[in-house]
Amino acid sequence: MCSESTEWRREFAQEARSERPDLARLCLLIGAEGDPALGQAGLDEADIELDRLAGLLPYGLTGPRAWASAVGELLGTRLGFHGTPADYQRLESSLLPQVLRRRRGLPILLSVVWIEVARRAGAHVYGVALPGHFVVGFGAPEAPVPEQVLADPFAGGRLLTGPDAELLVAGATGGSLEPSMLLPADPLDIVVRVLNNIRAWAAARPERTDVALWAVDLSLALPSHPARLRLERAQLLVQRGEFLAGAAEMEAYADVVEAVEPATAETVRNRARAARAILN
Predict the structure, then answer these.
(1) Mean pLDDT of all residues in 102-129
(2) Is 198 exposed, middle or buried (0-12, 13-18, 19+ CB in 10 A)?
(3) For the chain, how many structural domains are there in total?
């Protein structure tokens, strides 16, 4: 791994553990992993672009509906940020610098653009993690008299009514919209979801274990993560032909889970032995 990538991973881990993690910076660093040619200049350019877009919003906006309409008119209508079903098949759709350049992406990355541009201009804005479809909220849902306006960046910033949100949830889960689904998403939860999308993209492409591995490594750098990610990493190493390293990580994982899942631990140790045997 090049020194620049090592430094970016160190910064990612530090930022994720800071008191107030910077969503844009974390997503930009994910983008740097996905596009090593980007370099520091590319990261700086993407950050400057977010500032530039924020500067294009009109002054004096008040109220969540005015903010949602203005951001949607700028990003969705004038500049053409939106998504299509085909964007789910592209890794670039999960990389913030590429989304800023292409003006296309997954709902969650387009939402990050909306959030960061509006926040830098002074809006009360946040992500809303509806099941199966990420959107953006303007206003203060936790206020005594909440006023919340939802916008769908994937649809070019279309404002969502209550029934619209209910339909999105019903289409994704078959269930009903719960009030808790409309609360602001934590920045680290957004980052986890971005990395999960990347891992899912790579899992469907066995030849892209390189992408799966760095997505797992960044997930492991977060303050909280499932222990099973360690096993996923070990299996990826074996897939890539790094049998000894993969076997060692499998054994370390087995040691961790043995007390609560002895059968799982034994299965994983058998896999580790099989990986080592390949070299014999």
Answers:
(1) 96
(2) buried
(3) 2
Determine the residue type at 40: Q
Same domain, residue pair 172 and 231: no
Render pLDDT for 211-242 as a digit per residue (tens, 0 to 9).
Answer: 999 999 999 999 988 889 999 999 999 999 99
In a domain, 201, yes or no: no
Q: Measured between alpha carbons, how far is 185 from 82 in angstroms, rounded to an integer?
A: 21
- Domain around 15: 3-187
Beta-carbon count within 10 A of 47 CB: 17
pTM: 0.92
**Is the Cβ–Cβ distance between 5 and 36 less than 8 Å?**
yes
In eight-state DSSP terms, residue 104 is B
10 Cβ neighbours under 8 A, 6+ residues apart: none
In the chain, % of residues over pLDDT 90: 74
pLDDT, mean over the chain: 91
Tell me if 31 is assigned to some domain. Answer: yes
Residue 264 near residue 257 (C-beta atoms within 8 A): yes
Could you tell me where the beta strands, DSSP code E, fall in the chain? 125-130, 133-140, 147-152, 158-160
Q: Which two tokens mark 74?
A: 């700028």
Cβ distance 128 to 181 under 8 Å?
yes
Mean pLDDT in residue range 244-250: 93
**Last residue of a domain, which of 158, 187, 216?**
187
First CA to last CA distance, the chain: 28
